[in-house]
Amino acid sequence: MKRALSSVIFAGATVFALAQGSFTIVRPFDGSKIRETVHVMFPKNSIPEDSGYVGIFIDGEFIEAVAPKLSADKKYYEYLLNTKDLSDGQHKLEAKLYVDYSNQPRIVDTSSVDITVANKTSIPVPDEGFQIRYHFNTGTEHIYRIQEKVIQNMISEDQQKIKDSRPMQLEEDGESMKMLYACDNSYGNGDGLIRMQVVPDKGIRNREYAYISVANSNGPQKFYSSDMAAIYMRITPTGREVFGSVPEYFGLEGNTGTQNRLLLYADYPLPTLPTKGVRPGDTWQTNFQRGAINLENPYIQDSVVRKLPARGELLGVEWEMGHPCAKIKNSIAIGSGDTAKKTPQVNGVDKISDAKYSIEETVWFALDTGVPVKFYRDITVEGKGDFGLTVGGNSGGAGGSGGPQGPSAAGQSGGGNSGGKDPRDFHIGNFQRGGAPVGGPQGGPSRGGPTGAPSGGPPQGFGPNGPGGFGQQNSISTFVRIRIQQLFVLEK
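The chain above was modelled as a monomer; its predicted structure follows.
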């Protein structure tokens, strides 16, 4: 009797579901060739709103269960399928409609289509390899959104000796900002004169300003369009600097006096490219160009970068953001022996000794338009820091992590206030703030740097006298690892 009743309920559920509309995959079509993110669409009213959901399967393997949302035109339900993790070639996409009855999921309908994933194989590789070059055209502008994230790990030598002890980890999402790269002139040999500067995020209530954190500040500060100064670089079609400069600021016409004006500079050079034709798997010698403007002598410098030798590799080709792209990886690792004279200073830590640095940069470079559509930089600094403790007794709590703020200082007429020092070659961020007196050259600030290790001393438990006590007046050696992640995504 119970079995018969169950069959009736299930039959009723099937009729109810079918009455909502025919459940079928409308897009993509059967036999379609797809890539990147695909909109999988189902007819509107084919999924019960309160009790229905869809299971997505690829080649019979369950991917996830979702309640699809209506498309922008309100005509279909849609599910976004990311095909990047699928191998190129033929696959079976299957969707199963589930409806809950008596707290039990029931499959009431199934639809499937055959698809061909073509994220990589659809991009032919020339026999002579790809000649990967920037395409510079006078008047073109590209805006990237930059998102930064900082992860800091710390553990003392004493804690390392304790079984199962783990480093303290502080993680902070940096600010989101927009960066303009404009080609103000293109040359016959393929070079381009590039102007780079921060721009307001007009997508936020069409505002004409941006909030940016700089070192030695208590948080984000408001900078208007007129405060966002430009840095110029003439670069080759492979992204290498020919020269760089910071243009002189003279103020408004007829304006005189000694009033100071604070200008914001952002020095984020574009990635460098291979000089010869390359095929997937090829490697080459390249360099990183790290921002290195000198606001102490801004108008006499002819370079705004510091070049570091690195290793380049073409990981492959794939579609990204609607473009056929070369996927390039640039990397560098420098040991303590190479950096003995370039030890970084971090606020709150007297010194990071035996510092080791690494940078990895992954670039998706559009082969059709000649611009990077996305690039990701992962910067790591690690070493041993000595906390200078002067008072025993009570413990200070853990403070904030090192942030994405860059070298900065508030310049005054003829000079600047000293900020924290940065690793010079490896900037935590590339923002500098300089003061320019109206009608004359800007003052020379010293370079700033990252916010440092926890304020108030290490967290409880570091002291030899137990939790809450620093104990003896001596330095505590602490292993520090700071990781800065920067993501650049082309928006325009």
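The chain has a mean pLDDT of 76.
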